[in-house]
Specification:
transmembrane helix; 2 domains; mainly alpha; 163 residues
Amino acid sequence: MVLNNIEKLIEKYLNAETSLQEEAQLKAYFNSDDVAPQFEAYKPMFQYFSESKKEQYTKDVPLKSKKTSLYPWISVAAVAVLILGLVVPNFMGPTEKEKQEAQLVYNQTMEAFSLISIGMHEGKSQLTNLALVGENIEEGVQQASKLGTFSTITNKILKNKSH
């Protein structure tokens, strides 16, 4: 009966279905001297588990890693650069000479834009005059066509009177 029970427990153990109490029964059986010959193959496995429980690691485990990472330092450097980029321009603003040079460049630019604007207005008035000349030429062509018609009619009248 005991062998039948052990066989069922081994089968459950290999299928990972045993409880802690059943595993304790198997360990006790395989650590005893009267193990059945058909179960001798399992004896070293259970004895190993019992022996490995007793083993202890005796060396000191270092808690600090000797290898340092650069990532924290990179983030610190990035924050420092960002702060310097935001703070330094406020303290080290443009000097009085730089402000005067900037004002001079601004005034020269505005003067150049003013000259361009005047030139554009002159060009616009010339285009307006050109448009008026074009209209006058068109009106003259119409008048000339009327004059041509008048001349033709006059010639017909004069030819009719002379006959």
